[in-house]
């Protein structure tokens, strides 16, 4: 039987084709702004949201997951503005506190511990139609927002003070970027799981950086890597009998190594002689 005739596989492929490029697109700005640890913090904080959802008796803790992730993101930005603590310190504080809270709640709910694996390691094959539409809507929103505001976002990424001087509403853009990134991480947890979701934000732009000559080139290559890695990982998971999330990550790593080798070869290639 053709793998594409299975509706759950079709939904998984659609979700992968949407969320992979979306994470890769945002990842270009995340890595340039050195916010990789931020996405890791949000993904791990989602564990507490999952635990709260189970504690409330919800069969699908998606809403508490998203709300708690947004709360942690807002708390992080608030603390950044009102304390002198380093960003890494604040992220580690919120990450460890959220994980501890989630573990404590789940320890008191032993009948839900089996469900935890779906969120730790991802379960894209169980994704529903509503989640696919949510991912599609988020991709359209982010895509339009990024390309409409590419200039101010680029200025903000390159130099925040320069962006402020040029009239960019820095605080508003920072809050918007953090909220969109948080929503993307929360939605993508079903694809890769809490432990692996950051890899789809970091690896594609890292691979693209080996060959791209400018920001636009990096965006295009990063989105392409995210798309190919996500879809290939889902397709390869069944014949290889491995989970989809780790398969996607391994394909991403392979593509990074290919791009790295190509970048090294291009830099070492002798320049053509001027005529």
Chain-wise SSE layout:
Blueprint: H1 7-32, H2 36-55, H3 62-82, H4 87-107, H5 113-121, H6 129-148, H7 150-158, H8 160-165, H9 170-192, H10 197-209, H11 215-240, H12 244-268
Q: State the total count of DSSP E strands.
A: 0
Q: In whole angstroms, how far apart are the ends?
A: 59 Å
**CATH-level-2 architecture of one domain:** Orthogonal Bundle
Note the beta-strand portion: under 5%
Query: Rounded to an integer, what's the Rg over CA atoms?
Result: 19 Å
Q: What class would the helix/strand composition place it in?
A: mainly alpha
Helix percentage: over 70%
What global shape is seen? globular
Sketch the major β-sheet.
Answer: none
Question: Which CATH class of one domain is shown?
Answer: Mainly Alpha
List the secondary-structure elements in sequence, H or E.
HHHHHHHHHHHH
Mean pLDDT: 82
């Amino acid at each position: 039987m053709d793998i594409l005739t299975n509706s759950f596989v079709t939904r998984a492929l659609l979700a992968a084709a949407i969320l992979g490029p979306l994470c890769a697109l945002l990842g270009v700005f995340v890595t340039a702004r050195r916010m990789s640890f931020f996405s890791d913090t949000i993904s791990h904080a989602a564990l507490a949201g999952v635990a709260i959802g189970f504690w409330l008796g919800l069969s699908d803790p998606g809403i508490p997951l998203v709300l708690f992730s947004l709360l942690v993101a807002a708390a992080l930005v608030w603390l950044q503005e009102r304390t002198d603590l380093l960003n890494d310190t604040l992220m580690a504080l919120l990450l460890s506190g959220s994980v501890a809270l989630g573990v404590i709640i789940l320890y008191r709910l032993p009948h839900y511990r089996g469900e935890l694996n779906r969120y730790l390691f991802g379960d894209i094959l169980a994704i529903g139609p509503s989640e696919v539409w949510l991912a599609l809507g988020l991709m359209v929103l982010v895509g339009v927002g990024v390309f409409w505001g590419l200039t101010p976002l680029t200025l903000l990424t390159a130099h925040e003070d320069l962006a402020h001087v040029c009239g960019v509403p820095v605080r508003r853009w920072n809050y918007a970027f953090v909220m969109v990134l948080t929503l993307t991480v929360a939605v993508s947890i079903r694809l890769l799981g809490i432990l692996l979701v950051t890899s789809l934000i970091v690896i594609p732009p890292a691979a693209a950086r080996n060959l791209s000559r400018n920001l636009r080139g990096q965006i295009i290559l990063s989105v392409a890597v995210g798309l190919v890695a996500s879809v290939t990982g889902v397709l390869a998971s069944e014949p290889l009998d491995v989970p989809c999330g780790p398969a996607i990550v391994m394909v991403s790593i392979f593509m990074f190594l290919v791009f790295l080798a190509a970048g090294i070869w291009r830099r070492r290639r002798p320049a053509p002689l001027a005529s």
